Structure prediction request, 300 residues.
Amino acid sequence: MEPSTLQVTGRGMAQVARDVISLFKLRIGVLIMITALVGMVITPGPSVTWLQVLVLALSVLTASASAGAYNQYVEFESDRLMKRTARRAFATGALPHHPGWLVLMAVMLAGAVASAWMAFNGAAALYVFLGAFFYGVVYTLWLKRRTSMNIVIGGLAGSFAVLAGAAAIDPALGPLPWLLALVLFLWTPPHFWALAIANSQDYALAGVPMLPVVVGAPRAAHIVFVSTVLLFLASVAPVFFGAGWVYGLGASAGGLYFVYKSWRLVRQPTVRSAAMGAFFASLIQLSVLLIAACIDAALR
Prediction:
């Protein structure tokens, strides 16, 4: 084989690998995995081995990946209509839209749930399953094209990851894991709605009733702001249930920054940069909160 042929083949294989990796939405999966690990860290109880930590991380990541791939499998036609998703592998045909993928996704989810059950308990396994089920089935199949409130219920996927991590330590969940799960539940709508405002034309073309498509950008921006304020209040609530000052400082700083960016969005609801500013602020807010929660738990 000629060297040039080898180079082309190598590039082709590398592209296929990138397509397969992107299919599983690993960036989202890693974030969900981190929330599960934080749920484990903040829950008092018996110590766990590094192997158990690894099992939890991979179980949640694999379950999330299977749900992410299922989302792309189901939506490959509508993905072609949106600039943000038009280059996804099923949408472009880079990967064949074949039922064999569904078998792989089912095996991944079953393996993730079984691993959590064997390493920990049935409660942790149930929450791992529910996280994938709510994103893959409840959000993608049942709600996304039927209601502008689709992402509200879909946000439970992140909440279940927190509960999975906490249940791995103690199935009798205490107030802190429930409150952190509430924070994840309240975080998802303003996070996603800010992105939806920036991409509302895409969603309209694809026929997806995201909030800004249904109510318009100005009203959606006000809803994002109110949702962000509620998120901020929920995020500082753990301070009254055992969380320490480090957590309180991180939750306050990140939350107030997100509130500020959401207020900027209210003032400029049709400016894409304002919507993306609120979107990125949501990522900063959650990252600061999770880091603060881990440091706070280590100091207690």
About this structure: Residues 149 and 209 are 9 Å apart (CA to CA). The chain has 15 helices and no strands. The two ends are 62 Å apart (CA to CA). The chain has two domains: 1-171, 174-300.
